[in-house]
Amino acid sequence: VFVTTLPASVAQWANSSKACELDERHIISERTTPELVASIIVHEATHARLMRCGIGYEEALRDRVEQVCLRREIAFAARLPTGKGRSQQAEATLEAMPDFSDKAMSERYLSGLRDALLYLNMPTRLVDLTVSYRRWKHRRRFSPQPTN
């Protein structure tokens, strides 16, 4: 488990390093409880287990993978003496699943990138350049390509 700064989420499974990464800003928040941290780790560990079983995170599978991970969170929270609130939060997320398309995930990344870089004390001018470059790449990737 690594605590770092993530632009798009409070946690993620990094398959390249085989590690669960948690966003520092979320972990140090007064609203973050030990039960929440534990359930996030269970969620990300479920991603790890699915990857180990050969189930990736391609766009076509993403909704189903996230549903599995959220159900594991709910099952874990149900076993905690004070896990009812966490279980309800995970159930609410399961009911109103966010968009996990490549485009939506890229947009969430871009939305959080500026705050993450400023949090890391990167100079504002460099942050602006970095965010502009990433937005340009995003537009190129997701804009309709002319057909010949």
What does this structure look like?
Helix content is 62%, strand content 8%. The protein is mainly α and 148 residues long. The chain folds into 2 domains: 1-97, 2-Layer Sandwich (Zincin-like), CATH 3.30.2010; 101-148. The chain has a 3-stranded mixed beta sheet with strand order 1-3-2. It is globular.
Produce a short descriptive summary.
This protein is mainly alpha-helical and 148 residues long. Helix content is 62%, strand content 8%.
What is the CATH third-level topology name of the largest domain? Zincin-like
Name of the level-1 CATH class of the largest domain: Alpha Beta
Tell me, briefly, the overall form.
Answer: globular
CA(first)-CA(last) distance: 48 Å
* Strands in their spatial order, largest beta sheet: 1-3-2
Q: Major beta sheet, specifics?
A: 3 strands, mixed
User: Strand-residue fraction?
Assistant: 5-15%
